[in-house]
Amino acid sequence: MKKALITGVTGQDGSYLAGYLLEKGYEVHGIKRRTSLFNTDRIDHLYQDPHVENRRFVLHHGDLTDSSSLIRIIQQVQPDEIYNLAAQSHVGVSFEEPEYTANSDGLGTLRILEAIRILGLEKKTRFYQASTSELYGLVQEIPQKETTPFYPRSPYAVAKLYAYWITVNYREAYGMYACNGILFNHESPVRGETFVTRKITRALARIKLGLQDCLYLGNLDAKRDWGHARDYVEMQWLMLQQNQPEDFVIATGVQYSVRDFVNAAADVLGIKIRWEGQGVGEKGYWVSPSTSSMGAGDEKLIVAVDSRYFRPTEVETLLGDPTKAKEKLGWQPRTSFAQLVSEMVREDLKAAERDDLVKRHGFAVFDYHE
Ligand code: NDP
Ligand code: GDR
Fold first, then answer.
1. Mean of the per-residue pLDDT values for the chain?
2. Which of 93, 271, 352, 365 lies 20 to 30 angstroms, CA to CA, from 247?
3. Which helix (H) or strand (E) holds 8?
4. According to DSSP H, which parts of 185-250 are helical?
5. What positions does the domain NAD(P)-binding occupy (predicted)?
6. Whose CA is nearest to atom 20 of ligand 1?
7. At a CB cut-off of 8 Å and minimum separation 6, what does 147 contact?
């Protein structure tokens, strides 16, 4: 039975990958950080009681900023494959926590590679690094492929640039099977709530049910190549099953703006938006057919641009060219943009309906701000 170790197992990709590898018959080990509240919501469905014999899903406490924990866990598990998915993964937050982001996302990668080497596992353990389309930043070529020059535009992207090159360096210097998946944005119903797609689907579902008034966003003109996390984790696994380690771009090859995403999500909910103004003054109004409380012809402000969500340096446009992955890995994204948006909205609508039920039965009168 093959053993895999996943850092960032409690995150979006970690949860999909753990499920995928368990289905494939792997023994899966995950590293989670110590937190004051439970942080395992995304993997609770995979949980196996530590008292059960021969369990195939095991969690370890550790942190990418703590070499001692990484060496201990890798020594204990002796994994065939390591997937380094852990990161401070929010680009906007990286401007506020640049040093921590460099430590966890940049040096964290080095710590794992060094642990593999110190433990003499260079020929046994295959290593996957979660690289990112953010490396292209201020894009030098459209669409972006494996050979497109990098131009990172955030502390996050600069940290990930270090991680990318240290992975290449350990492959070349020590003959390790180490590779980078340069993944473009991928989303799902368990995407973190502060990334723009999930922020939109969650807020519009709540607005639809009257639980929230307005959705505040930053740059509506930013364009991204959005795929589904479920599809992308399969490529992470496949990259470690090749004869030679290589780096691959994984993307859909189709691009939409943030405003397109808002319109698509609103569409699923039967909300029509009229846009007015531009830049920081741009606003989106819910137009008829709308809520029962609104009269004919009334409009309701539901989207507004707030400059606090703008970044000091923005990545305006990303569009991937996944030709290499198509040819060598047989990559074919299975989920379209419309299907992705629809799945996310429907899941958030279910959650909003639960909240609404609680509220209508008088349980949501408690206000944390009172
Ligand atoms: P998430 O933010 O959902 O998950 C990140 C994971 O890393 C969480 O489990 C988090 O733990 C953990 N983590 C954060 N800091 C540390 C640390 N210091 N030590 C140990 N664990 C830590 O990210 P995604 O699942 O979306 O992304 C997975 C990886 O892929 C990340 O490296 C990201 O940068 C990269 N990536 C993501 C893309 C995307 O579109 N999703 C595209 C390209 C690359 P906790 O749950 O406790 O917060
Ligand atoms: P990104 O994702 O920065 O591409 O990084 P995010 O969803 O945060 O932003 C995408 C674009 O939307 C614009 N935007 C907003 N973003 C957020 N978060 N909140 C807003 O209110 C908002 N309004 C507009 C952003 O400016 C940006 O242009 C994600 C992460 O998963 C990284 O870890 C990963 O490496 C890359 O995708 C590929």
1. 95
2. 93
3. none
4. 196-208, 229-239
5. 5-344
6. 63
7. none
Spatial separation of the C-alpha atoms in residues 148 and 159, rounded to whole Å: 18
Is this complex scored with an ipTM above 0.90?
yes
CB contact burial 175-207 (16+ within 10 A = b; e otherwise): ebbbbbbbbbbbbbbbbeeebbbbbbbbbbbbb
d(CA 150, CA 238): 24
132 noted as active-site residue: yes
For ligand 2, atom 21: residue with the closest CA: 217
Q: 308 CA to middle of ligand 2, Å?
A: 14
How far lies 105's CA from each of 61, 84, 171, in Å?
A: 18, 10, 18
Catalytic residue among 156, 164, 170, 177: 156
Side-chain half-sphere exposure of 203, counting CA atoms within 13 A: 19
DSSP string spanning 12-79? HHHHHHHHHHHHTT-EEEEEE---SS---GGGGGG---TTSTT-SEEEEE--TT-HHHHHHHHHHH--
What φ, ψ does residue 204 adopt, rounded to 5°? Answer: -65, -35
User: Residues 205-251: pLDDT tens digits?
Assistant: 999 999 999 999 999 999 999 999 999 999 999 999 999 999 999 99
| CATH class of the 3-183 domain in this structure | alpha beta
* pTM summary value: 0.97
| CA separation for the pair 227, 340 (Å, rounded) | 7
Per domain, the residue ranges of the chain are 3-183, 196-222+257-313+336-361
| Whether 132 contacts 182, CB under 8 Å | yes
Please identify, in words, the CATH class of the domain defined by 196-222+257-313+336-361: alpha beta
pLDDT surpassing 90 at residue 65: yes
- Amino acid (one-letter) located at 227: G
Question: What are the pocket residues of ligand 1 if the criterion is a CB atom closer than 6 Å to any ligand atom?
Answer: 7-8, 10-14, 31, 33, 35, 39, 63-65, 85-89, 104, 130, 132, 183, 185-186, 192
At 310-337, the pLDDT tens digits run 999 999 999 999 999 999 999 999 999 9
Residue 304 burial (10 A CB sphere; 0-12, 13-18, 19+):
middle
Q: φ, ψ for residue 245 (rounded to 5)?
A: -75, 130
Question: What are the DSSP calls for 242-294, one per residue?
Answer: SSS---EEE--S--EEHHHHHHHHHHHTT-EEEEES-GGG-EEEEESS--TTS
The encoded tokens of residue 86 equal 């852990």
